[in-house]
Give the backbone structure.
Amino acid sequence: MNAPQEYQPQETLTFDNRFTRELPADPEIGNTRRQVTRACYSRVQPTQVAQPQLVAYAREVAEELGLSRAFCESDDFPHIFSGNRVLDSMDPYAMCYGGHQFGNWAGQLGDGRAINLGEIVGPTGKHWVVQLKGAGPTPYSRSADGLAVLRSSIREFLCSEAMYHLGVPTTRALSLVSTGEHVVRDMFYDGNPKPEPGAVVCRVAPSFVRFGNFQIFAARGEIDVLQRLVDYTIRTDFPHLGEPSQATYLAWFEEVCRTTAQMIVHWLRVGFVHGVMNTDNMSILGLTIDYGPYGWLENYDPNWTPNTTDAAGHRYAFGKQPQIAHWNLVQLANAIYPLIEQTEPLEKALSNYVQEFESCWQSTMTHKLGLQAFKPDLDDGLITGLLEILQLAETDMTIFYRRLASLELGAKPVDQLDDATFIQPLFDAYYVPEQLTPETTTRIAAWLRRYHDRVREDGTDNETRRKRMNAVNPKYVLRNYLAQLAIDKAEQGDPSMVHDLLELLRHPYDEQPDKEAYAQKRPDWARQRPGCSMLSCSS
Ligand code: AMP
Ligand code: MG
């Protein structure tokens, strides 16, 4: 190993704080809770923590920011990325935003426990907003403490990076630092509060602006501030659209509709359920943002939600995500309407969302099935049939697609195979073998025969099909029970599984023979265990 190099934090980190420089600030300084009007943000200082220690960092994110390994592994790093040491070039602030929570307008929310340190300019000139989550109260903390626990911080840190390596648009995570302090949480809101280890995640994104950042100004009638934020967003994050004008606003909204549709299709592709798709959790860049009570589909169930707060309504269940994203875009359209004053083009953009979603979904499913191109007359039925058989018996979605890819189609004429033998290679994907009744087996086999014929028709050989499928159907995802095991260990002082999972999930599409255990379906003990199949918003 090389000896650590000398470093100078002030030189290593180049900040260019456009957001605070160009947008209206709350004149009041300090962290006291308040309503903040006519301002995009409030300047705040992170709260000092007792003993910040690095638990993990993502080297790819460090590289994007131009941070050397020596710096990331230095004693300074946890002090800086817990908020203990604020550098001169930083300009810490919390953003003001509102949002619809579970369909209801909630008024001012804002960065209640996220503090943006400023914007780092990476080696390629790209700006990255660097944000600490859990670094103490801000004016937007309402009745909460501004802190975060290790449990939820591990989940955010690992999932951000897992999603990135899966090719899903997402905010990133630079680091996970434990604070050496305890934070009291009532994990299931059932009157059992207990102290848990505290942590700070440093999140990184070109922008953390959400739909709710625009909604708050529209709701308050602060249209001039709304316009400043829209103009700023277009100039900094959508410069290809040209100078702000009514036409540009529309082009911008159309693009937000498109990127949002693409993000949702990615979620469906990999089996991700966000869990809290409130409008304040929707990124204007179409990034997955705010990893709270999210979950990964185990058995394919469109009605599944990991979020116990949503258990009654299933508003944010896996299969509802496309509609909810549309509903959220309608709220964004309402918010920017005062700048456009025409409903028709906004409605057109919203219907383009549906088209974009459909076409991304079709091409994604084509890839997931290893086909060359989507043929509506054949594939609409093929896909509907697939989604039906996935629900006949509890079927692990991730394993199913990998096993489907490995099928040797055409080796023997399919009509010579009995149903049970034909579906045998998929057995691994089923949670409860007894559910594979003769009738279910026949229906699954019937779909497989149809798929077989379609592959034949497509003219794709097994090897090509397998490669195509394995490039979009991950072998490894952050299974809910794996994250929980990593948390259990880390809470006992052993972060090794966090490191193992971070490494594993760097290559989610590759076979990693020595990591086969991490590709196993959820064990029975995890079926009902809190943190594995059920999560609350407590974090
Ligand atoms: P979320 O459900 O995480 O999207 O959070 C909704 C709102 O509550 C946001 O404004 C958060 O910043 C805020 N919030 C969540 N947890 C805390 C906390 N522990 N302290 C302060 N604010 C919080
Ligand atoms: Mg949020």
